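REQUEST ID: PR-0412
SUBMITTED BY: lab tech R.K.
PRIORITY: routine
TASK: structure prediction, single protein chain
INPUT:
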Amino acid sequence: MKIATDRTANHFAKAERLPLDDEFGAPLVEKSALFCLIIAIIILAFSAASVIARVDSPEDSSLIASSPNINAGRAVTFNNRAYFVVDDGVHGEELWSSDGTDGGTFLLRDINPGPLGSGVRNLTVAGAQLFFSANDGAHGFELWRTDGTPQGTVLVKDIAPGADSSMPDSFAVINNVLLFAATHPTTGRELWRSDGTSANTTLIVDLFRGNAGSEPLELTAVGNTVFFSAAVPQSSGKHRSTNIGRELWKTDGTAAGTSLVKDIWQGFGSSAPSKFVALGNSVFFTASTSDLGTELWRSDGSSAGTVLVKDITPGFAGSLFGHMRTYNGRLYFNVNAQFWKSDGTAQGTTPATDFAPGISESNFISADFAVLGSRAVFTVMTPSALELWVTDGTAVGTKFLRSRIPNDQIFIEVPLVSLATGNLVFFDAFDPTTGTELYATDGTPVGTRLVRDFFPNQSEPFVTPLFLTGVNGAALFSADEGISGRELWISRGTPGDPRIVHDFLTD
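STATUS: complete
OUTPUT:
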């Protein structure tokens, strides 16, 4: 399989760029800063290759390589069905739907007839509607929606009239209303909202007057508020304005309810808030200032409540952040090749040494872990391998599950992602006898097993199963068994149970 060429890469770069700090990290076996830096660079190169997930199949290239963490917005579960982007060699990249059976798998709509396809992106559920962006060949990339039926899959509004593209992206949902960034010729790129009708798909506010646009990024819902970053000049007197740079903003979906939260880097400088994560009634994010560099911040939506959480790396150099996620009411994150936690206070922001009792502090834990009930299934880098572990926060509940990649095979491309569905976590792992194949775990060593050796006797290490989404406790994924090329499969995690759902090559 070859990942389809992304014809919209330049337009979607801000929303879907692969951050350089999504490194897997470095083991702290030695305390030498140089050693840690060298290891981090090696793992960064390895992880970047894994995220790109290059897969070469000897036959067709039907399924887009997609996973919850690889290509955000290319697969989603909606009304107990899977919706995903497929290039079947005939229709180009279009939106398909499946209930996990061959008869229940179909092309939802050929939005842009012909082999080019519509390049569907940003699949986002809002109540009884599934929103996305697509190009029908006549209107450019615009906002679409579906109710799950072919006749209910329609263009919402041609925001940038004619063949121009408004490039909707950075989707967020509050009260079943979609908020997003879009470009209009007269306002530039600004904040919009939609309830799925053309009449109620409207500009919220023109923050940067004129056609320059404020370029809203990383819209993140926290309750009834959406936080985002934007670059907006502030008025100073009758005819003067000052560009305060890219700072933290919020909106409730109305013009009156859209406001600057705080000018964190005061003056012309941009604090460039990023990596937004909602936790409780607050949003955590990284931001920069001239005296602190990039550090961890949080906000409750008020200026007074927008504060530095902790100066993790004292001085102006700042910290380097990786993955962030929430678990048991805390924020867990990778920073400076370490694993930390935060409760939102400086005192409660520390290395997460109690996350998995018994694991040496010299080993690196990735914050990109899966949650299975009350337990976390995570990857840790030890002196011998990248290993999969499980923890419930106690020493007795912290257990080794299996090796994912031996250190002597560190440059084998294994996507370091997982899919939690039902009571299982699906993941890829490499074994010299089988290559990179699909595994599943229920969080116990005995319940961690090879699901299937899809490509027996493979000599090509890059033929890897790739996750699409979970539906009703099962995993939908793409895999290549060396016969029909990369196709759609389904599994409930029982050894030998995966079955092919649909052979797109025949359509």
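NOTES: The first strand starts at residue 75 and ends at 78.
REVIEWED BY: pending
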